[in-house]
Every structure is written in C-alpha cells, then in structure tokens.
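Lab notebook, design round three. We kept the backbone fixed and only want residue identities now. Task for the bench partner: fill in a sequence for the structure below.
Input structure tokens:
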C-alpha cells in the first residue's frame, strides 16, 4: 500500500512541476518591453503549403533591447513571414527592407504595463487553479486507497504532505508573478 502512496505523491509533484513550467512558458510570451525572440514562438507562416513556425524558416535575433531581427533563409519568404507576424496580432508592425524584417518594440505606457500585469496575474491564477486541481485529485486517490485498506493515520499524513507540496508550488507561482511584475513595471 505504501508503494501506491509514494506513487501518488511522485505523480502529484510531477504534475505540479508541469503546471509551473507551463506558467513560465506563458509568462515569457507576455512582453515586458524588452525584445525577446520567444515572442515569435507560436507564429506560423505558410511555407510551401505547410504551416511552419517562423523560427524554422528564418533566423530570429535580438539586435538591441527594443529590436528583433527576422532574416528568412529564402528571400521569397519575406512577404509570407511579414503577413504571418501582422496576422498574429502581437501588437508590433514589422518593417521590411527587402532583406530583413525588423520588429521595433515601442516603449510601454503606464496603462499598457498595468494591463500586462493583469494578464500575468490571470496566468498566475490559472497556474494556482491547476495546482489546486492536482491536489484535489491526489487527495481523492488517497481516499480511495484508504477505502482499500490504507490506515487512517497514513492517509492523513499523506494528505498533509500533499498540502505542503501544494503550498510550496503556490509560493513558487507567487515568486514567478512577482519577478515578472517587477520586470514589466521597470522603466
């Protein structure tokens, strides 16, 4: 019975780690006024009839704190990539000079910074909800094990461990949000 309990705990921690890494991925997509190539992740262009990520058909680099350069490996893909960036609605207008597409990030206004912080907090809340759902599912598994013969003391101890794990991961979400908010609000 204790192996099953250990398995539940390990699975719970693995799922919570996954929730944190998902939160980290979502927070990197929210731009904080600094140029970051990951802002273009998820944008796909039509590459000879197949939707392909821009990173696979062009070289993406950061020229300075506010400029991203996108250089297609094939010149005829310039227009296609430019249209894909415009259609992605990331709030940046691409500048095409015939060889390279440059994305100039405008400085963030105070109002826009507050909107981005709200978006971050929304992502953080989604992360916390996911962690709490994982906790609930794990506790249900422990209760099933208790019905199958696990002692009440062992079940209570396991539930306490799951709660401690949940608290640790909720604090981790808070730390990520705090760091991202500091990054966004820095002028």
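Proposed sequence:
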């Amino acid at each position: 019975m204790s192996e099953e309990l250990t398995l539940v705990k390990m699975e719970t921690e693995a799922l919570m780690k996954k929730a944190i890494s998902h939160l980290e991925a979502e927070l990197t997509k929210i731009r904080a006024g600094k140029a970051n190539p990951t802002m273009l992740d998820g944008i796909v262009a039509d590459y000879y009839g197949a939707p392909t990520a821009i990173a696979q058909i062009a070289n993406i680099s950061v020229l300075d704190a506010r400029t991203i350069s996108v250089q297609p490996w094939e010149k005829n893909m310039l227009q296609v990539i430019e249209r894909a960036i415009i259609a992605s609605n990331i709030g940046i207008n691409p500048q095409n000079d015939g060889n390279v597409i440059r994305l100039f990030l405008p400085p963030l206004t105070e109002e826009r910074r507050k909107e981005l912080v709200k978006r971050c907090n929304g992502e953080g809340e989604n992360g916390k909800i996911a962690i709490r759902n994982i906790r609930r599912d794990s506790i249900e598994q422990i209760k099933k094990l208790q019905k199958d013969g696990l002692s009440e003391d062992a079940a209570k101890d396991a539930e306490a461990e799951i709660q401690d794990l949940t608290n640790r991961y909720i604090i981790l979400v808070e730390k990520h949000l705090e760091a991202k908010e500091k990054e966004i609000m820095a002028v």
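Keep this in mind before ordering anything: The chain has two domains: 2-29+109-185, 37-104.
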